[in-house]
Amino acid sequence: MSSIIELKNLTKIYREDGNEVVAVDNVNLQIQKGEFTAIVGPSGSGKTTLLNLLGGIDKPTSGQIIVDGTDITRLSFSQLVDFRLHNIGFVFQSYNLIPVLTAKENVEFVMFLQNRPQSEREKRSTELLTAIGLAERMNSRPSKLSGGQQQRVAVARALAPRPKFVLADEPTANLDSRSAENLLEIMEMLNRNENITFIFSTHDPRVMRKARRIVTLLDGHIDNDTVTG
Asked: How far is CA 140 from the centre of its chain?
């Protein structure tokens, strides 16, 4: 496997009411292509901040984030927006589907922004929705789907443009046990079949059991890094 992400001395400091809060503290980390990695730790340990930095949503105070050879900390705002669009998939715990679009249209949306041909968008969205068991719900809007189904659509949308990696922030947080297990099995299947790198931020033991690497944060730094399978 080859490294897809490299973090070098990554630090993020927030300043609140004259005080400094070190959310991410001098983190050095490599993620290999095809990994299924969970970032875990107690509340306030820096998990979400680290995911936001990886996704180019937030800027570090210092250090480097190198994605497939590109140091994204050196990109301008417009370059970073374009880089995210073409290289990173996002799955949020709140689904973030567009209410007026069908499941199929939601899956196609990022590819539409990328100006992919309609034939490619339709083929890819149909393949993914079929793979995740929603072939019969392609034309349903989010309001007609259960929480588990909406999150599956969100995963398909993240995977549709074949990003370099997918960031999933507490993706099972709003799901019941059965839906969460089903979602994790689907993501694991897609990870193995398409070799897309998944990085989770989670408290969920079910995600940790599926993960093949667990990176534990404590007070913004890496406390433990374990390959589990």
From this structure: 24
198-216 exposure pattern, b = at least 16 Cβ within 10 A, e = fewer: bbbbbebeebeebbbbbbb
Under a CB-based contact definition with an 8 Å cutoff, are residues 5 and 30 in contact? Answer: yes
Amino acid type, 115: N
- Amino acid letter for position 11: T
- What is the per-residue pLDDT across 138-164, written as a single tens digit (0 to 9) for each? 999 999 999 889 988 998 999 898 898
Burial of 15 (0-12, 13-18, 19+ CB in 10 A): exposed
Q: Which of 85, 80, 128 is nearest to 103 (CA)?
A: 128
CA 39, CA 162: separation in Å to the nearest integer?
Answer: 22
Cα 116 from Cα 165, distance rounded (Å): 19
- Alpha-carbon distances, residue 177 vs 93, 97, 194 (angstroms): 15, 22, 26
Tokens representing 147 are: 């929480």
pLDDT band at 83 (very low <50, low <70, confident <90, very high): very high
Residue among 77, 75, 57 at smallest CA distance from 66: 75
CATH code of domain 3-95+164-227: 3.40.50.300
Positive or negative torsion for Cα 68, 7, 197, 74: negative
Whole-model pTM? 0.89
